[in-house]
Amino acid sequence: MKKMLGIIIVLLLIIIVIISLAFYSYVKNNSNNNNNSTNKQNISTINSIEEPYMLDGPGSIHNFFRDKSFSEWEELVSRFYGEYYGMYDIEVECNFNDEGKFFSTVTSENEVVAEYVFDDSSGIATETSTGEVVNFDSGVIIPSYGADASMSEYVDFTDNECIAIGYVTDLNEEAFIEKYFPDGSYGTLENYDFRYEANRTPGYGNKFVIIPINNKVKITVYDCYIGDDGELYTDNTLILNQNEPFILLDDYIEYTPSMCIKFEYNGFEEMFPITFSGEDGTLDLNGYEMEVKDISLY
To answer: Quick check: 56 pLDDT over 50?
Structure first.
């Protein structure tokens, strides 16, 4: 009887092993079939990408740059060369280089005339050999703010003036742009928005445009407050050593300053608060008029 019971137990164990092996084989085959199906779908997806799309860079598909196709950018560059330089018999090719930067090559009679590299965020192009900066969207050359390049073409700096500040409102912004940025470069300025998140809507708060005479001017912007002793004190550093024109946005500033600007130029250093006069509502630059120019349109 005991012998018979032992045989039955052995048979049950064998049956359990056989069932387990069969189940494992089923699961493995099913997994392989799913993987093959997924791979076929991926291959099908890649094969369905039609020209002019092309794989370029790590997992990226490039045939557009800033919502324009290569051919549209080539047309803009060609039009610019025709209208600005009178060069119509040229060839323009746009693409991405090995570093992922969008560029445009201009050739004439099989010789390279120019090569431009485009900024990813603004779309502004810089010629690699001359440094010429072009906004091909608007078809204009943007003046360089180099160390020796003065902004006096648009801002009439005089005597010791080395920095200009303009208070810009919704009502006068168009006129402000026409007067000081007729080249279309206003849209390329760096925007520093220090308004509360909920207030970052068009028309809310104050907008100031800061323009140095050249990039030798170093501009730093701070949070500030007036102490009990009536003196101006700085707090957080908001912008450090900016040397090109930029836009500054903040919640409403009235007669008590909450932001101030420090500038350094040729060994001279000064700091002034951004505030308005209680008499006429204009920017209060009392004591700083020799170096700071008010270009607001009142």
So the answer is: no
